[in-house]
Write a structure and sequence with these properties.
The complex is a heterodimer.
Chain A (H helix, E strand, L loop, with lengths): L12 E6 L5 H11 L9 H6 L9 H15 L5 E8 L10 E12 L2 E11 L5 E10 L2
Antiparallel strand pairs in A: 1-3, 2-5, 3-4, 4-5
Chain B lengths: L9 E8 L2 H10 L10 H6 L11 H9 L2 H8 L6 E10 L8 E14 L4 E11 L5 E11 L1
Antiparallel strand pairs in B: 1-3, 2-5, 3-4, 4-5
The chains are: A alpha+beta, B alpha+beta.
Chain lengths: ~140, ~140
């Protein structure tokens, strides 16, 4: 289904994306697949030496979930930009939910675009990532 | 405090192959089930030349080509104390499996907050493909706590 610019309203939420709880396997897989081999995400001994209670999720894993949120809504070649701020640490057992809301409709570079406010929160409603994306719509 | 003279310092230019297997592994790791990112026939049916590089994977390719620890040493950061603060991507063209992407990076800012308790380094990279097409600009901000 193609999303049309004229049918989208400011304030509208795009379909949310609910993920599985983060476990150690999630982090091991993301470590290997992403190429981010920082031991703080997979090696509890290293994490404790760095004065963290345990390993914790890669911020970029949640950013990838926000990427999925966008490409589930529109084809990827419509995504013009994506920016995220990491506002909290995602711990083991957290259950991320990604949401997006249309906050602006505008024309730029000869095309119709919308700006989305993005958020990734855990099951307690704590925000872990805040972001923005610009998407072109026909 | 990191050396402000490093602002503008090149973090190097490197090229990297986008491998189909790596994209599938990444799709698995992030729970992606859209066949466009897993099955080449589905990608082609959707108008792509091969499996697309998903929105945030450009950052993964970038860290593949750079020795992060060496980079952190340059700015005097310790891996165990570093967190990712911000990340952004501006997209110009799609990238696909089979492409060879070139990353041209530089340090674009160094600053501190809370009286030096938090130190930030901001890096940018311009990404182009084998045909010289401008794929994206990516910007990363790291903080040492």
């Amino acid at each position: 289904m193609t999303i049309e610019f004229s049918a989208v309203q400011v304030g509208e939420e795009i379909p949310l994306l609910t993920l599985c709880p983060i476990n150690r396997t999630t982090l091991a897989l993301y470590c290997g697949a992403s190429g981010d081999h920082n031991p703080i995400h997979v090696d509890i001994d290293f994490a404790r030496r760095a004065r963290m209670p345990d390993v914790f999720a890669h911020g970029m894993l949640s950013a990838a979930y926000l990427g999925r949120l966008l490409t589930a809504w529109v084809p990827q070649d419509k995504v013009r930009s994506l920016s995220v701020r990491f506002t909290g640490i995602t711990q083991l057992g957290h259950l991320p939910t990604c949401t997006g809301k249309v906050i602006e409709k505008f024309c730029e570079a000869g095309e119709q675009r919308v700006r989305l406010a993005l958020s990734c929160t855990n099951q307690y409603g704590e925000e872990k990532l805040a972001g923005e994306a610009i998407v072109a719509l026909a | 405090m990191a050396d402000k003279n490093l602002i503008g310092h090149s973090t190097g230019v490197f090229s990297i192959d986008v491998e189909k297997g790596r994209l599938r592994f990444f799709a698995k790791a992030i729970g992606e089930t859209d066949p466009v990112y897993i099955d080449e026939a589905a990608a082609q049916a959707a108008g792509h030349k091969s499996l697309p590089v998903p929105p945030t994977f450009l950052k993964c390719l970038e860290s593949e080509g750079r020795d992060v620890v060496q980079l952190l040493d340059l700015v005097g950061f310790d891996l165990g104390r570093v967190l990712h603060a911000e990340q952004s991507f501006v997209y110009h063209h799609m990238a696909y499996a089979g492409d060879v992407l070139t990353f041209d990076g530089r340090i674009c800012d160094l600053y501190e907050k809370k009286g030096g308790a938090l130190q930030f380094v901001v890096m940018e990279a311009r990404v182009t493909n084998q045909d010289g097409e401008h794929i994206a600009d990516i910007r990363s901000s790291l903080v040492q706590r």
